[in-house]
Amino acid sequence: MWGAGMREPAPQHWVRWGPVIIVLHWATLLCVVALLVTGWQLGAHAAHIGRRTEILQLHASLGVLLLAATAVRILARLTGRRPTAPAGSRLRGIAAFVVQAFLYLSLLALIATGIAAAAPRPFTPPIQLFGLWPLPKIVGALPTMVRNMPGIHAALVWILLGLVGFHVAAAIYGTLIARERTIFRMLVWPKHR
Ligand code: HEM
Questions:
Q1: What is the pLDDT of residues 46-104, one digit of tens each?
Q2: Which of 17, 12, 18 is nearest to 182 (CA)?
Q3: N or C: where does the chain have the smaller number of CB atoms within 10 Å of the terminal CB?
Q4: At 142, is the pLDDT very low, low, confident or very high (cuts 50, 70, 90)?
Q5: Is residue 9 part of a domain?
Q6: Ligand 1: which atom is nearest the Cα of residue 149?
Q7: What does the mean pLDDT of the chain come to?
Q8: Three-state helix/strand/coil letters over 122-158
Q9: In this predicted model, what pLDDT tens digit does every residue of 173-182 receive, in sequence order?
Q10: Considering the domain boundaries, does residue 8 fall inside one?
Q11: What pLDDT score does 110 carry?
Q12: CA 153 to ligand 1 centroid distance, Å
């Protein structure tokens, strides 16, 4: 029993990620779903410049928001608490780490190629983030690179989806088959799992 003024010692084994990581994990999922929907809508409205520009403003704004969230998340991941690794297979632990590292890399690559693909072209209005700030140009000086960016950006989407597939399959396997409470490590409840 811990009395008034006494501090409870830090637990030896964290059972879940810290709250910042958990909130940003699920916020990233929502943001990526919204980016997929708006990204594919861009193709559907390719012939209507006005509508396409509106959707692109939203798509780019969400993408830059995701960049900020990913930067905070990587920082929190490097500096914050991490749950104790399950006692299961070491190989599975390494595979999970590699897939997670590539998930972060593919998100960053998607954002970078997206910003490059959104560079203003003749007859298209410049993109304003949240209707307020102009989208910074990152490769404005390299027109040939910009020309290839939409294709690279679209290919990266499928790489991201493949990695997400592995990630979700591993979470299901870890939770239901290996019974390592994998999914509970990324949930703020229930309290005592
Ligand atoms: C994780 C982040 C992102 C995801 C998942 C994503 C997803 C997508 C998808 C699904 C498409 C349609 C691809 C296709 O034609 O098959 C697309 C297109 C596009 N995205 Fe993104 N996007 C992301 C980030 C960004 C960012 C940050 C920007 C700009 C700031 C951006 C700008 C664009 C542009 C300009 C296109 C149209 C390319 C073209 O065909 O001309 N994207 N995106």
A1: 888 889 989 999 999 999 999 999 999 999 999 988 888 777 778 888 999 999 999 99
A2: 17
A3: N
A4: low
A5: no
A6: 38
A7: 86
A8: CCCCCCEECCCEECCCCCCCCHHHHHHHHHHHHHHHH
A9: 999 998 888 8
A10: no
A11: 97
A12: 6
- C-alpha 170 to ligand 1 mean position (Å): 27
Report if residue 7 sits inside a domain.
no
Q: Residue 78 corresponds to which tokens in the numbers above? A: 């490097």
Q: Domain containing 34: what range?
A: 19-81+88-186
Q: Which of 32, 33, 42 to mutate to test the pocket of ligand 1 (most atoms within 8 A of CB)?
A: 42
In a domain, 13, yes or no: no
Q: Whose CA is nearest to atom 19 of ligand 1?
A: 39
CATH number at residue 172: 1.20.950.20
The protein residue whose alpha carbon is closest to atom 39 in ligand 1 is: 150
Give me the number of domains the chain comprises: 1
* For ligand 1, atom 11: residue with the closest CA: 39
